[in-house]
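Appendix B, example 12.
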Amino acid sequence: MLDKARLQRMIDRMRDNTKNFLGYPVSKDFDYSELSELFKYPLNNLGDPFVDSTYGVHSNEMERDVVTFFADLFRAKNDDWWGYVTNGGSEGNLYSLYLAREKYPKGIVYYSDSTHYSVRKNIHVLDIESIAIRSQKNGEIDYDDLHQTISTHRNTPVIIVANIGTTMTEAVDDVNRIKKILKDLAIQHSYIHSDAALSGVINAFADPKPCFDMSDGADSITISGHKFIGSPIPCGVTIVKKANRDRIALSISYTGSLDTTITGSRNGHSPAFLWYAINNMGKEGLKKRVEDCWETARYALTKMKENNIECWMNKNAITVVFPPQPDPIYRKWQLATEEQMTHVICMPNVTTEQIDELVNDIVKGGHKTFPQD
């Protein structure tokens, strides 16, 4: 028999915990009730989204629209791109590194020590040689260390993971500077992946725009759909060069489609959510969404400084970094914390009233200065 009381307790807990979380990049200001009818059906986007399979209960058409939207946003060449809706940014990183490895089996992956943990895990799964590069204080990759390290392996293909918004500080690695390093060292074989899980959409509307997308020289780029856009199910979008995807494509006779993704069966509901969101907002709506978040972040930075709380943020970021807080504040606001810092991420659902309350909590019983080294 269904334990309705237990189910209700879980629902109550989800509602309560959703009220106050400022430390994680998750948008919660969505309403997909118009899509509720879809939950009556086993949507499975089996195989390649651009090749309909013999399984007819899918949202491939919506997925193609979503991928096309982001290919355009990230300035992919019209005749050389492909993509799909993933289970999230980690799968996008795995897929992109998989393509890089297949192109350069003896390549070395270079990534900064501020890179998302999924990259290290994916490198291990794919069994690729790798070298970690130092980060600068703001979380951006140390270009001098990158140059020096690559120079000692000049005869080996270079695979670089560029962070387009690091986890703790939302730092952005400059793909243009990375390309210049490769040119200066006369590197003939390279692959650059942009991990833009949170900040890809944000930086697409920055002016001037940082160098990070396909037009800037990235071979692949991945974002998370449940972060800036918002979705009840974790998801993401990966855009790659079609020529690299073709290298791993296999035809599966019984499905009538191509095996070009990480998983065979894929969630068919997530593309519907993303399709609904981008069709409601469009590029102008997304731009306004970004601008509102920037405004909230500037408010948070100013409010903290007015109350003598040490804080800072990177250019174009919506993440404000401040000292780690005592357990009651950490738990109340669900703050993601490293030893020397914590942060508030001013997602679209974050309000100035929440910022005021957080600042008041810090003033009353929190830490206003960073720990001393």
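The domain at 14-27+284-363 is CATH 3.90.1150.10 (Aspartate Aminotransferase, domain 1). Residues 269-306 form the longest helix (38 residues).
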